[in-house]
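Appendix B. Chain record.
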Amino acid sequence: MNDGQTQLHLFLPGIETLCVEPPSPATIDAMRIPWLLLAVQLFALPAHAEWVERVTDGIMGTRVVVELWADSAADGNEMIEMVLAEMRRIDAAMSTYKADSEVSAINRRAALEPVIVSTELFDLLTTAIDYSRITEGAFDITYASVGYLYDFRHHHHPDRKQIASALPSVDYRQLELNARNRSVHFARKGKVIARIPLEDAALSTSGDYERYFDENGIRYHHIIDPKTGDSARKVRSATIIGPTATRTDGLSKTAFVLGPQQAIEIYNRMDDIDAVLVTPDGQVLYTKGLEAPR
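Structure tokens predicted for this chain:
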């Protein structure tokens, strides 16, 4: 204290403590005026930014909604087109429905000879194999060896004989990756690989309510159990939160195969993953990093 006034004590490393008297009221008012003028100018600036949205069908077999905040509608549409162009590029390279895609080339030729692929696809397949090992085969990128027998648009599912015939080809361990020349080879004929998305997102939800049909009280949907060749029905929905969409999408399907309790145990062992699962009876389960709403 000094004559009833408070002193300000500033400490700088290597410099003695300084004692500074507080500024006078007149000085404070003089300092305040420029800041007030700046605030008025900022609030007076016109606000042109806006939400821009576009809905597109037919990319990666689903409806795509892109919504972003942009300075103008023209800027927003330009950025949206960049997003859609990247999705179309990935779809062209990795679609199982396009005959000229890299994935289709693998499915046609890899049982006959090693197929050299791009670094991007090779890294993705390597990641997929990692998730197959982590989940002990509950996620298996070769599930499509049976999955292609289903046609959800026309409400068609394979019979037990067809599944039994194709099921031996579902085995990620038969997918041979050679890092030296980035080649892919099927050790067994009849194998087909599936497609999973690349990065740039951090949340994936899988459910039995997108591509499905009901027959005689049984729901047939697109998430196939690699061990049975049938639709996996141990949960109704699985939402995974993680650092990349590759990681979250690869893990969201496993709950349908393993069941909620075993899946939660696996997710809880991963520091960068959280999940919300919905069981067939409507129970909602959370990983340890999430708290149930109250």
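Further analysis of this model is presented in Appendix C.
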